[in-house]
Specification:
It comes from Actinosynnema mirum (strain ATCC 29888 / DSM 43827 / JCM 3225 / NBRC 14064 / NCIMB 13271 / NRRL B-12336 / IMRU 3971 / 101). Residues 1-59 form the HTH lysR-type domain. Keywords: DNA-binding, Transcription, Transcription regulation. The protein has twelve helices and twelve strands. It has helices at 3-16, 19-26, 30-44, 60-88, 101-113, 125-134, 175-178, 194-206, 220-228, 238-244, 267-274, 277-284; strands at 49-50, 57-58, 91-96, 118-123, 139-144, 151-154, 156-159, 185-187, 214-216, 233-236, 247-249, 257-264. The strands form three sheets. It has a five-stranded mixed beta sheet with strand order 4-3-5-12-6, sandwiched between helices. It is rod-shaped.
């Protein structure tokens, strides 16, 4: 038996002196309220109302148990209110600091539509991992090797002007072949992680490029400014290049990629974040 539902019907009828009015207040049809009261009477072993009266008149037993039933109904209402408040409690989520504000806004709006309030905190890869590890945020989108997480973002290089070729080869950046100033490939701070950075540095050395031709920039803004004012290249995703107004091409000698995973102390927080996977994919520039 639904004890809370039965007590709600009992209290609503008792306080209004009518099964019709009580059922309406409880939000159920009158026959349902009558069945619930009858089930409660059977459960308690005594009649709650005098069935011979024209109105819903409490029996002595009904008057005795009414305060306890009212208390139970108030507790149930308080529980539902507390649950609603808990669902609205913001969930702090650490996200990459380069994610476009437009996409983050759509992510937050989608979460609100699902009854989840996100408190987005932008941070670099090392800080996001630290925030999740120390519990300063309830969940974080952390950088992981491709294939070991929830999203994969392919990377290539982007230039200020459209390259003539459909694929860019780092080998063509060697100073001896270009005959001009040494062009650079700038890595964003987001890609200053071993699984992205180290293979590209090894490829740089294997191709005979100068050490300064593949480097990690101090900031994304500074890197983009350098690319816009030169022939340098920015390591980024196709979606990020489009957002920055740059022209993207894949690399010929390598297929670098970002991997992202949801890290959370509580499994239910991780699942609530993963439920927003399509919108998070848009923020990260990954395929849905």
């Amino acid at each position: 038996m639904d004890l809370v539902g039965a007590c709600l019907a009992f209290v609503s009828v008792a306080e209004r002196g009518s099964f019709t009015l009580g059922a309406s207040a409880a939000g159920v049809p009158q026959p349902v309220a009558s069945r619930r009261v009858a089930a409660l009477e059977a459960h308690l072993g005594e009649r709650l109302f005098d069935r011979g009266a024209r109105r819903a008149v409490l029996t002595p037993f009904g008057r005795d148990v009414l305060p306890a039933a009212q208390h139970l109904v108030r507790l149930a209402e308080a529980l539902e209110q507390r649950a609603r408040q808990a669902r609205r409690r913001p969930l702090p989520l650490a996200v990459p600091d380069w994610c476009p504000a437009r996409d983050l806004a759509h992510l937050a709006a989608r979460a609100q539509a699902d009854g989840l309030t996100l408190e987005l905190r932008r941070a670099g890869p090392a800080e996001r991992a630290a925030l999740a590890r120390t519990g300063e945020v309830r969940a974080a989108i952390t950088a992981v090797p491709p294939g070991g997480g929830d999203w994969v973002v392919p990377l290539g290089v982007a230039a200020a002007v459209p390259p003539a070729e459909h694929t860019t080869y780092l080998d063509t950046l060697r100073v001896g072949r270009s005959g001009g100033a040494a062009r650079r490939v700038l890595l964003q701070p987001e890609d200053d992680v071993p699984h992205v950075r180290d293979p590209l540095l090894r490829l740089r050395d294997a191709l005979g490029l100068r050490p300064g031709q593949v480097v990690v920039a101090d900031s994304l803004v500074g890197a983009v400014a350098d690319v816009l004012g030169s022939a340098d290249l920015l390591l980024c995703s196709p979606a990020q290049a489009d957002d920055l107004g740059l022209h993207w091409r894949p690399l010929g000698e390598a297929e670098p990629a970002r991997g992202y995973a949801v890290e959370a102390v509580r499994a239910d927080d991780a699942e609530r974040v993963r439920a927003l996977g399509r919108d998070l994919a848009r923020c990260l520039g990954a395929s849905a």
